[in-house]
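## retry 2 of 3
previous attempt timed out at serialization; input unchanged, resubmitting
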Amino acid sequence: MSDNNLENTTFYYGQKQKIKPIIKLRTPPLPAIRYADVKDNFSSHGYFMSTTSIANQINNHFGLESGQVDCQWYDDHFDDIAKFVLDNYTIRQHSGLTSKFASINAIMKAGNVDCSFIHKTKQLLQLPIELQPAEKTDIMPWDDMLKYLKDQLTQTGLGSACCLLVTYLHGYALRLGDVKYTSIHKKNGVNWLDTENKMWYIRQDFTKQRKARQFPVTQEYIDELLPYVHQSGYLICKRNGNLYQNCNMKTLRLNVTVNDVRNSYETYNQSRKDIDQAEKSRISNNVLGHTTSIAIAHYTRNELANELKHCQ
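## retry succeeded, writing output
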């Protein structure tokens, strides 16, 4: 047998067996996604800024180039990133941890990158994180908050401020963005307060949790609200009817914070005796727009939060 006949051939127990060459294909590295290239793929500027915030912190800590997500590095260092988040952020439940990773995932998805980093996020739910209520002091009782909001209503002459105050006075303690992007007219791209059927529809694009929700409102609320609504239909807007690009409580000349109102209302909600826990959860989930565990950990006074923690 010639040398050529022996090529790629070996013998086992007298039998000739062909050896198949093994070809290994090298997977190309994942790309780096620059924020500027995917900015327009986000539903709003606020959402874009919130998603890039955690990536900025990671890049700064590990000495990575700013203004981008190096997908290959992130994919190779998932555990290091998880440890960084746990060590540098106050994580009180799994949702707080997964939300940090959801921001990174959003950037990768905006850049059409699919990698193991995105799919590993589910593993974070296996980490032992005990719900720990945040340390909170000086939460105003809801009855006192109502009196304070009523005083603010009598003092302000700004229609948008009146709309927000009336909304809060009727127990709809929404985030400012939920109200800001609401119109009483059904329009594409904004939340809709259906005054005829008394339903408020919140689009997922304008929510912190990226989940659409809806809840009923009372006729009393609508009757008190409508006189203050701008002819454009927006609950919060400039005098010419255009939406604010940036808007906070100071813009509306109000001397109260959104968190103060939400803290006060959720403490009242969780301690009520006239409704059952299912209704309390519905209010937390559908109206305020967060989970019951988030409500307990962040929006109720310490004694009540610790008591409710053991009832979950």
